[in-house]
Amino acid sequence: MDNYKPRISDQLLVDLLEACGSVLVEGSKWCGKTTTAEQAAKSVVYMADPEDGERNIQLARTSPKYLLEGETPRLIDEWQVVPKLWDAVRFEVDHRRKQGQFILTGSAVPASRDEIIHTGTGRIASLLMRPMSLWESGNSNGEVSLATLFNTPDNSQRKTTSVSKSWPI
């Protein structure tokens, strides 16, 4: 993507991929999960693709391993459409014994967890994304920091200029 704006989550995702076999990127709709994951992915499967989605869903239900083949990290977007993919990813991570194999994205939890056998503990790390911050979007220069405001004791003793103005009631 030509006009991609770097996110704080970019480095977090890279760090998690270096430490774990797979990363689940969670967050609200339209917060940038897929776009961020695409920056780190070497190959992608879109489960909700209007052209190939139905084929991918059928393949995920019958032979999910085939969807996991491809250059890594492999992004599986909207994985929750076929919850069975969760255990397929966990199984592959166990057997490949390599870090950074998969990125799973989805804006909704699976409709049913009945098909999920394993929690993914130790194999699938979680990254919670929030909507883009004002600093990330370029709408703030970052001079005001909430962490600094809360962690710097002398902030409460700053001199403030008061403006008196009479306001109509």
Question: How does this model look, in words?
Answer:
The chain contains seven helices and five strands; from the N terminus they run αβαβααβαββαα. The radius of gyration is 21 Å and the shape is elongated. The protein has 169 residues and is α/β, with parallel strands linked by helices. The protein has a five-stranded parallel beta sheet, with helices on both faces.
Descriptive terms for the model:
five-stranded parallel beta sheet; 7 helices; single chain; 169 residues; alpha/beta
Summarize the structure.
The chain is 34% helix and 14% strand. It is an alpha/beta fold and 169 residues long.
Number of strands: 5
As a percent range, the share of helical residues equals 25-40%
Please state the structural category. Answer: alpha/beta
Strand content: 5-15%
Count every helix, treating DSSP H or I runs of 4 or more residues as helices: 7
Question: What's the overall geometry?
Answer: elongated
Spatial order of the strands forming the largest sheet: 2-3-4-1-5
Q: Separation of termini?
A: 52 Å
Rounded Rg: 21 Å
SSE sequence, one letter per element? HEHEHHEHEEHH
